[in-house]
Every structure is written in structure tokens, then in C-alpha cells.
């Protein structure tokens, strides 16, 4: 995934850290072998190279991510789209470096080959059909899934108190050793906006934006990079769902984010450019969560 993982935990008595470390690395390797956009031999890579009409029976991990990705794609009207690997690649955000930005014609060709509406997925049999020339890119959701997977792995090892992080996506389970919740600061890339700290108690947070890697988020609808969203954080019980929605909200206009986040009752903090300034918006659901936290600590 081109990033690092980190776990802080309050382990139970007799917890075998070395065995846990081996299990974590094996779990991550399994997820990468299925869904890595950078590995030609991954299942995703084989799907992307397959002939039109080829059906793939997906493993449980891959199937869970595809089902969630298609659901968010539908609910966001395509602002999140797991089937824009061709667009991601021509802008140089994939495994192959580019020497120049794509032309308008190249963008249009990549758009024509892309789009989740071209996919056929049968949940009952976990089968996914390659329509021909389509390239999946699950980088906007798979990292969140991996965070959830590691939290579940620790729970299966009887470790129910941990903070799991992969590349800035986090999930908190249980409590810290001192009895406090796992406190995290939402990523705030500008001094024009006050920092915001939340308690990740049985919650996850994912952030999308351009303040680290530049304008790397591609609008699936236009095929062009997005330039207004500095940072969009989504808080949700699932890091996978938070990851996908953060990607979608990083594409949508501020007005559309406000409308959709409110309808979906999602906890969202948006920091975006507005003219020559910067604005912050906190969704009603997140405002209610912050108010509850402040009331509980009063």
C-alpha cells in the first residue's frame, strides 16, 4: 500500500507479541496479494488484465471490499468509484511513473474504459465480471478494510484494547492502559482551522485530501484532479466505510458534501479552499458526537 502500519495496545496477560506480529504481517500480505494495485500478480492485477467476459470468483476479503465499494459508489452517484484504475494510471498515481500529464483525448479514452456501472457483481456467488479493458483501483477503500481486519485479528487473539493505524487511517477498540479512550487529532493542514480531537471508542476515522501528496484525487465523473478539498475526515464504526466516504467527499463540491453527509447521517469534517481563504464544515452528526463527548467529560 506504499505506507506503514502501527498498533498501540493494552494486551491481556500472556499476550504473545511476536506471534501477533507474525499474524499481522501474514494478514496484510494476504490482503495485498488480493487487492494491491501495485502488484502485477495480485488478484486485482489479474482481473485488470483479463479478457472481456471473464468471471472471477472473489475470496471473502476481496468480495467484502467490492460489495462495500459498489454500495458507496451508488450512494455517492459515482463520486467514489472503484473502477477508475485507468484514470489513476494515466495521471501517474499508479504503479508506473508518467513523464507528462495526459491529454484530453487520453483522459476521455480512460473514462470510456472506466466506471463501476460497467461491472457485474453477483454477491451470492461472489463473482465479478471483467467487461473488457476495465481496471479496478481499490486504494480508496482497501486500506480502511485492512485496518478493520487487523482490529478483528487482535480481537480474535483476545486483545480487545488497541489503536490500529495504516497510513493515517485509524480504528480504536476498547481503552488505553490508563483507562482513557484512544484520543486522536483529526488531520488539520492549515492554521486557519482549529485542531479537533476525538475519542476513538469503537470507532474509526479516515482522512482524504491533497495536503500531503498534492492533487492526487481524481474525480471519476470528469477524469480530472480535484483541487478544492484540503482534508476530509469521516468518523464511522468501520474504517473501510470511512475510507470510501472520505474519498467520495474529497471529490464532491462543498455544497454536495454538506447535503449528502447530512442525508447519510455521517460524521464528517471538511476543510476546503474557498476563494483565497479556507473554510471548515462539521456535519450535524459529528457536531452531536463532539457535544456528547464534551458533556460526558464535564
Automatic annotation (TrEMBL):
The alphabetical list of record keywords is: FAD, Flavoprotein, Magnesium, Metal-binding, Transferase
**Organism, as annotated:** Novosphingobium guangzhouense
- Which is an annotated GO molecular function term of this record? metal ion binding
Family, per entry:
Belongs to the ApbE family.
Cofactor comment in the record? Magnesium. Can also use manganese.
Q: What is this protein's name?
A: FAD:protein FMN transferase
Q: Which domain of life is it from?
A: Bacteria
Q: Which reaction does it catalyse?
A: L-threonyl-[protein] + FAD = FMN-L-threonyl-[protein] + AMP + H(+)
Which cofactors does it use? Answer: Mg(2+); Mn(2+)
E.C. no: 2.7.1.180
Residues recorded as binding Mg(2+), renumbered to this chain, are 140, 243, 247
Amino acid at each position: 500500500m506504499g505506507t506503514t502500519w502501527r498498533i498501540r495496545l493494552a494486551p491481556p496477560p500472556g499476550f504473545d507479541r511476536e506471534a501477533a506480529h507474525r499474524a499481522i504481517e501474514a494478514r496484510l500480505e494476504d490482503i495485498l496479494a488480493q487487492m494491491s494495485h501495485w502488484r502485477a500478480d495480485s488478484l486485482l492485477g489479474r482481473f485488470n488484465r483479463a479478457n472481456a467476459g471473464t468471471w472471477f470468483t472473489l475470496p471473502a476479503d476481496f468480495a467484502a471490499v467490492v460489495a462495500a465499494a459498489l454500495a458507496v459508489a451508488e450512494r455517492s452517484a459515482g463520486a467514489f468509484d472503484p473502477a477508475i484504475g485507468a484514470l489513476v494510471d494515466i495521471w501517474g498515481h499508479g504503479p508506473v511513473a508518467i513523464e507528462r500529464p495526459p491529454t484530453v483525448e487520453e483522459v476521455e479514452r480512460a473514462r470510456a474504459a472506466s466506471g463501476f456501472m460497467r461491472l457485474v457483481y453477483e454477491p451470492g456467488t461472489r463473482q465479478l465480471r471483467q467487461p473488457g479493458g476495465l481496471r479496478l483501483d481499490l486504494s480508496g477503500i482497501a486500506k480502511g478494510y485492512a485496518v478493520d481486519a487487523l482490529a478483528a485479528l487482535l480481537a480474535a487473539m483476545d486483545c480487545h484494547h488497541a489503536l490500529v493505524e495504516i497510513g493515517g487511517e485509524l480504528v480504536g477498540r476498547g481503552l488505553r492502559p490508563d483507562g482513557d479512550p484512544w484520543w486522536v487529532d483529526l488531520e488539520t493542514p492549515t492554521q486557519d482551522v482549529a485542531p479537533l480531537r476525538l475519542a476513538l471508542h469503537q470507532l474509526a476515522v479516515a482522512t482524504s485530501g491533497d495536503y500531503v501528496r498534492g492533487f492526487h484525487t481524481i474525480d471519476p465523473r470528469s477524469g480530472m484532479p480535484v483541487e478544492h478539498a484540503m482534508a476530509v475526515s469521516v468518523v464511522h464504526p468501520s474504517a473501510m466505510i470511512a475510507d470510501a466516504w472520505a474519498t467520495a467527499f474529497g471529490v464532491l463540491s462543498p455544497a454536495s458534501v454538506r447535503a449528502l453527509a447530512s442525508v447519510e447521517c455521517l460524521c464528517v469534517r471538511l476543510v476546503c479552499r474557498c476563494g483565497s481563504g479556507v473554510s471548515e464544515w462539521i456535519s450535524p452528526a459529528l457536531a452531536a458526537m463532539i457535544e456528547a463527548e464534551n458533556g460526558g467529560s464535564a
